[in-house]
Amino acid sequence: MSQSPDLYERLQLAPSASADEVRKSYRRLALKHHPDKGGKPETFKSISEAYAVLSDTERRRMYDATGEAELA
């Protein structure tokens, strides 16, 4: 899967964002883009995939080191 925009951009965060900032940004964007609220399913999925990686300490560390994320 392409990393463009990268996972931090998907959540509108800087790479230095704390775990709390990741969580808050995800919640804000998920509420805004949720399909039940009129958002596009593709956008919501993209945000959720980014959160799945950036909220997991080990996956985030690997993403930061390689620029690639295992999204499966």
TrEMBL record:
SUPFAM superfamilies linked: Chaperone J-domain
**PANTHER family under this entry?**
CO-CHAPERONE PROTEIN DJLA
Domain named J: residues: 6-67
Q: Which InterPro entries match?
A: DjlA_DnaK_co-chaperone, DnaJ_domain, DnaJ_domain_CS, J_dom_sf
What Pfam family is a match for this entry? DnaJ
Determine the domain of life of the protein's source: Eukaryota
Residues in a coiled coil are none
UniProt protein name: J domain-containing protein
